Amino acid sequence: MGIFDKQPKDPFISAYKLFDKKIICPNCGNEKFQVRDVLLNTSAMTFFGFDWANRTASALICTSCTRIEWYFDKPNAII
Ligand SMILES: [Zn+2]
Q1: Is the model's pLDDT at 8 over the cut of 70?
Q2: C-alpha angle 62/66/71, rounded to 5°?
Q3: Which tens digit of pLDDT belongs to each residue from 11-63?
Q4: So what's the pLDDT on residue 30?
Q5: What separation in Å is there between the alpha carbon of 62 and the centre of ligand 1?
Q6: DSSP of 17-65, one letter per residue?
Q7: What class does CATH assign to 13-78?
Q8: Cα(9) to centroid of ligand 1, in Å?
Q9: CA of 57 to the centre of ligand 1 (A)
Q10: 32 Cα–ligand 1 center, Å
Q11: Which end of the chain is more exposed for a tag (fewer CB within 10 A), N or C?
């Protein structure tokens, strides 16, 4: 099971904000990201078959340079 399983084929691309601050790629300054939910697996939970109990995080992937930013809480899309 890969960490990017169960993702839509064409992830929604948007600008995002967290705590009313727009998220900007620190590498290239781009403001557009793909967002993916990523399972935060722990080896103990996986060993006991409780993968479903692990939390997910949000990975924002810069559409320009592909840098990945991780967020524990999902940022809000700016429409
Ligand atoms: Zn970037």
Answers
A1: no
A2: 55
A3: 679 999 999 999 999 999 999 999 998 887 777 777 777 776 777 889 999 99
A4: 97
A5: 5
A6: EETTEE---TTT----EEEEEEE---HHHHHTT-GGGS-EEEEEEETTT
A7: mainly beta
A8: 21
A9: 19
A10: 8
A11: C
